[in-house]
C-alpha cells in the first residue's frame, strides 16, 4: 500500500509540474508563435501568415553632379502591397539651382506590379513628365527584376496620348568589394519614335546615361558614395541640344547618398 501511495503522489506531482508548461505551449500554438507547421492540423499543418501588407522605399540616387555647372539629381521608388500585388511609385529628375531653380528630366510613374516568374515582375500603369518643359502623359508597361549574374534590370515601354512611343532600359549591379564597400556600375538608355521639340528629344536613341558609384554602408539604410557619371546624346536629341548651344556629352563628378526605409 505504501509503495502504491508513493507512486500516486509522484504521478500527481509530475502532472502539477507539467501543467504550466503545457498551458504555455498551448498559448504559443493558439497565437501562431513557436508552432511547427508540420505538427499542425492535417493535412497541411498550421496556416502561415503570408498575405500581410508591407511597404518599402529607396532612393538609389540623391546626388550632386559637378562639372560645367552643377545640378542635383534624384532617383527613387517605393511600393506598398503583399507578395502578389503591389502599387509602385517611381520618380526621378534634376534640380538646376544655377538655372533659376529649374527642374528638368522629371518623370513620375504610378504602376501596378505582379510577379510573373520567380525573379521578374510585370508592371503596368501611367507616367507623367513634370518639369520645366511641356508635360506629357504616358501609359506604361514593363518588367523589373533580377537577371542572370544578379543584375537589377528594368525595361519599360510607353505610349503617350499624342501618338508618341518610348522605351527606357536600366541596369545596375552591386559588386561587393567588402561587406560595406560596394562598387555599382549603372547603365540607362532612352528611345523615342518621334521628334518632340516640346520635350527636347528626337527620334531613335535619345541618350545613354552611365555611372560608376563607390558607396560605403555606414549602416544598411544609409550609404554615402562618390563616383562619375557620363551622358551621351544621339540623333535628333543631339541636334536639338546643339541648337540650344549645349554640348553633345556630359561628364561629371558626383557625390551622393543612397538610403532606404
Q: Could you explain the architecture of this structure?
A:
Strands 1-2-3-4-5-6-7-8-10-11-12-13 form a twelve-stranded antiparallel β-barrel. Helices cover 15% and strands 55% of the residues. Mean pLDDT is 85; it is low at 14-19 and 28-37. The protein is built from two helices and 13 strands. The protein is mainly beta. Residues 1-24 form the signal peptide. Pfam families: CopB (PF05275). Keywords: Signal. This is Copper resistance protein B.
Summarize this structure briefly.
With 261 residues, this protein is mainly beta. 15% of the residues lie in helices and 55% in strands. The termini are far apart.
Relevant terms:
55% strand; mainly beta; twelve-stranded antiparallel beta barrel; 2 helices; globular; Porin
* Count of the domains: 2
Arithmetic mean of pLDDT? 85
Give the number of helices.
2
From the alpha carbons, calculate the radius of gyration and give it in angstroms: 28 Å
Q: Major sheet: order of its strands? A: 1-2-3-4-5-6-7-8-10-11-12-13
Report the CATH superfamily of the largest domain: monomeric porin ompg
Q: What pattern of helices and strands is seen along the backbone?
A: HEEEEEEEEEEEEHE
Q: What is the general shape?
A: globular
Uncertain stretches = 14-19, 28-37
* Amino- and carboxy-terminal Cα gap: 71 Å
Helix content: 10-25%
Amount of beta strand = over 45%
Judging by the overall fold, what is the CATH architecture of the largest domain? Answer: Beta Barrel
CATH C-level label of the largest domain: Mainly Beta
Structural category is mainly beta
CATH topology of the largest domain: Porin
Count of β-strands? 13
Keywords: Signal
Signal peptide: 1-24
Protein name: Copper resistance protein B
InterPro entries: Cu-R_B_prcur
Amino acid at each position: 500500500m505504501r509503495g502504491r501511495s508513493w507512486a500516486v503522489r509522484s504521478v500527481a506531482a509530475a502532472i502539477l509540474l507539467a501543467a504550466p508548461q503545457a498551458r504555455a505551449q498551448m498559448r504559443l500554438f493558439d497565437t501562431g508563435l513557436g508552432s511547427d507547421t508540420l505538427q499542425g492540423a492535417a493535412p497541411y499543418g498550421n496556416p502561415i501568415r503570408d498575405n500581410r501588407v508591407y511597404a518599402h522605399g529607396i532612393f538609389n540616387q540623391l546626388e550632386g553632379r559637378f562639372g560645367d555647372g552643377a545640378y542635383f539629381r534624384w532617383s527613387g521608388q517605393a511600393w506598398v502591397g503583399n507578395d502578389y500585388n503591389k502599387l509602385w511609385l517611381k520618380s526621378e529628375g534634376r534640380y538646376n539651382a544655377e538655372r533659376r531653380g529649374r527642374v528638368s528630366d522629371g518623370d513620375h510613374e504610378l504602376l501596378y506590379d505582379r510577379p510573373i516568374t520567380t525573379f521578374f515582375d510585370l508592371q503596368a500603369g501611367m507616367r507623367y513628365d513634370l518639369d520645366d518643359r511641356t508635360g506629357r502623359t504616358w501609359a506604361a508597361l514593363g518588367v523589373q527584376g533580377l537577371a542572370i549574374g544578379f543584375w537589377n534590370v528594368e525595361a519599360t515601354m510607353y505610349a503617350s496620348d499624342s501618338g508618341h512611343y518610348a522605351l527606357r532600359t536600366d541596369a545596375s549591379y552591386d559588386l561587393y568589394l567588402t561587406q560595406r564597400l560596394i562598387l555599382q556600375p549603372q547603365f540607362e538608355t532612352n528611345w523615342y519614335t518621334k521628334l518632340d521639340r516640346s520635350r527636347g528629344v528626337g527620334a531613335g536613341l535619345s541618350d545613354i546615361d552611365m555611372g560608376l558609384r563607390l558607396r560605403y554602408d555606414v549602416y544598411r539604410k544609409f550609404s554615402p558614395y562618390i563616383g562619375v557619371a557620363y551622358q551621351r546624346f544621339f540623333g535628333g536629341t543631339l541636334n536639338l541640344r546643339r541648337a540650344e548651344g549645349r554640348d553633345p556629352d556630359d561628364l561629371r563628378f558626383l557625390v551622393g547618398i543612397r538610403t532606404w526605409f
